[in-house]
Write a structure and sequence with these properties.
By secondary structure, the protein is of the alpha+beta class. It folds into three domains: 3-125, Orthogonal Bundle (Butyryl-Coa Dehydrogenase, subunit A, domain 1); 130-239, Butyryl-CoA Dehydrogenase, subunit A, domain 2; 244-389, Up-down Bundle (Butyryl-CoA Dehydrogenase, subunit A, domain 3). It contains twelve helices and ten strands. Strands 1-4-5-8 form a four-stranded mixed beta sheet. It has a four-stranded antiparallel beta sheet with strand order 2-3-7-6, with helices on one face. Strands 9-10 form a two-stranded antiparallel sheet. A hairpin with a 2-residue loop joins strand 9 (280-281) and strand 10 (284-285). Helix 5 (90-103) runs antiparallel to helix 8, helix 8 (242-278) packs parallel to helix 10 (324-348) and helix 10 (324-348) packs antiparallel against helix 12.
């Protein structure tokens, strides 16, 4: 690991965070890094890996101790996710970040005490796995286009109908946080509510596992809800507040995506640096060619700048500031910097970079989806442009 990558913002990370990083890194180097290629080839990581992480306390670093967490903060969870991306374990990183940073935080923030006590201990211990149900065939970044509906049941509770797609952890999840339309509002922000859906309920179905070009070890599925009868306490937070609640979740999701983009980008450059030091052409290592050295320097500088933007934004988010435009900027810049780094890292490998046996080929493919998940580049630009022009978000 290059010492340059270890120069982090101390405004976000405390000595306690760095002790956590050391612990996570040791576990990842031993239990994850040696097996990433094997899991990708097999198309799945071990079923007990979540439980292993739960035993280490890594799934609950940002949650209160009374629910089985470690009493840390948002930055602590960033540490865990960064360390997974640092070794190119993007499938596991995505699965874990959905569980710890996307689907579970709304339970803590908006849930009743009964909901917290019912769900959080098992989720933080890795005994159960959570998924987030937002995207549909005709609604991704356009949350307002969601068609899944929940209507009040005559005998109390709710009846849920609809479907979701591109759902990470969909094949494993024990509980899915679902956003759905609820009456009486038909349009606008008040038309949506959040529900906790146990996957053991009748009418819940797991559709086909989607075949992706990357992240093969991460299960991404279609989910179906056919007259699923939900109990009254399946509603999370206030009825008609689901849009605002999911927007808060998306802010955290985008920061995590940005932070892991930077971490994966540094991993790509480290693969490139190791290769150019060893690979010889025209009688000398290709690291001696100025064009290669200078391109690597530019890319390292770009990632370093992106990291500082991400950390600054994360610090403000953690402090409770509303920084919608800055979050969009961080996500956009980090994903772009990663893409450039991964692409050039493959380029310097030459033909070998296109071979599956070289890790950079997997990193290159996994990097591409970062410009799509958690809101596309185009969505981030629109959010930034609205801020610049003084137009409120829709």
């Amino acid at each position: 690991m290059s010492s340059a990558q270890e120069q982090r913002s101390h405004e976000l990370f405390t000595p306690e965070h760095e002790l956590l990083r050391e612990s996570v890194r040791g576990w990842v180097n031993k239990r994850v890094a040696p097996f990433v290629d094997e899991w990708e080839s097999f198309g799945e990581f071990p079923a007990d890996l979540f439980a292993q992480m739960g035993e280490q306390g890594f799934l609950g670093v940002q949650y209160p101790e009374e629910y089985g967490g470690q009493g840390g903060d948002f930055a602590a969870n960033l540490v865990v996710c960064e360390e997974l991306s640092r070794v190119g374990a993007e499938s596991l990183c995505m699965a874990v970040s959905v569980h710890t940073a996307m689907a579970t935080p709304p339970i803590l923030k908006y849930g009743t005490e009964d909901q917290r006590q019912h769900y959080l201990p098992d989720l933080l211990a890795g005994r159960k796995i959570a998924a987030l149900g937002i995207s549909e065939p005709d609604a991704g970044s356009d949350v307002a286009g969601i068609r899944t509906r929940a209507r009040p049941a005559d005998d109390c509770g709710w009846i849920l109908d609809g479907g979701k797609t591109f759902i990470t952890n969909g094949g494993r999840a024990d509980v899915v946080l679902v956003i759905a339309r609820t009456p009486p509002a038909e349009e606008g922000r008040k038309a949506f509510s959040l529900f906790l859906v146990d996957t053991s309920l009748a009418g819940f179905t797991r559709g086909r596992r989607l075949q992706k070009i990357g992240r093969h070890a991460s299960d991404t599925c279609e989910l179906g809800f056919e007259s699923v009868r939900l109990p009254a306490d399946a509603l999370l937070g206030e009825m008609g507040r689901g849009f605002q609640q999911i927007m808060w979740e998306l802010d955290a999701e985008r920061i995590v995506s940005a932070a892991t983009s930077v971490s994966l980008g540094f991993h790509a450059l480290e693969l490139a640096i190791a290769y150019v030091k060893d690979r010889r052409q025209f009688g000398k290592p290709i690291a001696d060619f100025q064009a290669i050295r200078h391109n690597l320097a530019d890319l390292w500088a770009s990632l370093t700048a992106a990291r500082e933007l991400v950390y600054s934004t994360a610090r403000r988010f953690q402090a409770g500031e509303e920084r919608l435009a800055e979050i969009a900027m961080a996500k956009l810049v980090a994903a772009r910097s990663l893409g450039e780094a991964a692409d050039y890292a493959l380029q310097v490998h030459g033909g070998y970079g296109y071979m599956r046996e070289y890790p950079i080929s997997r990193v290159w493919v996994d990097a591409r989806v970062k410009r799509i998940t958690a809101g596309t580049d185009e969505i981030q630009r629109e959010l930034i442009a609205r801020h610049l022009l003084g137009r409120p978000s829709q």
